[in-house]
Amino acid sequence: MASQNLLSVGATSSDTPHQTFNFDHLPVRTVNRDGEIWFIAADVCAALEIVSSRQAVGRLDDDEKGVCTVSTPGGRQEIMIVSESGLYSLILTSRKEEAKRFKRWITHEVLPAIRKTGGYGNQDPERLKLAFALASEVADQAARTVFEAVMAGDDGWKHDRWMFSLTYDRDNKPTVPWAKAIDREAMVVSLAELPRRLLEPNGMLPSNKELAELAAACNQRLAQRMAYEASKASGTGVMKP
CB of 64 within 8 A of CB of 93? Predict the structure, then answer.
């Protein structure tokens, strides 16, 4: 439920007061910044039962957080605010059961109410639901993968990198994401990018043996391709490209 208790905001000329929403007995105040709704970080963290709002906000990307000035009984104070993206990040960091209910309240009550008053850009509800579901699945997979790596018994995980994949079925529906460790010697690079990376002075540093094997494989593959093209032109194309 929303109330019209307005803030006095003066951090920037583009900050203007907006609505205060009530999550149970807790107020969640909002600010309109350049046509976008930002949320008072302390209010969000209180609703999510996050103890240190400063630490939680500190982990967000720079474009997901900011400050605004509000009038309080003790005078004007600067307080932290988070964008919608920052709000979602805070929700996903909370493992409290309350986070699920808060997320539903935000997506089903707060954002629709804001859009209804014309103060916020439209968001596709289905896409928002999918984004939360996939982000939550990836987070769970990451937690399980890292946990298993640490519990394996050695310290290799300290130097590991991780890969997460979102796959889709035949109906273009997302399946459960998966995660795995990437080999420490592996390079994640496209074929188009590989030549440039090899030539960079401080880029990839393969050994002479690795370079020779790569060159031999390329020459062999090119010979196969040329043979196939020749057989195809002669009408006896039985070789694979």
Answer: no
State phi, psi for 74 to the nearest 5 degrees. Answer: -95, 5
pLDDT in tens, 212-233: 999 999 999 999 999 888 888 8
Euclidean distance between CA atoms 71 and 17, whole angstroms:
11
Q: Report the alpha-carbon distance of residue 182 to residue 23 in Å, rounded.
A: 42
What's the pLDDT score for residue 118? 52
Place of tokens 């007995």: 25
- The dihedral over CA atoms of 99, 180, 214, 207, expressed in degrees to the nearest 10, equals 90
> Are 6 and 116 in the same domain?
yes
- Is 139 contained in some domain? no
Task: Look up the domain containing 65 and give its range.
Answer: 2-123
pLDDT in tens, 41-77: 999 999 998 888 899 999 999 999 999 887 667 777 7
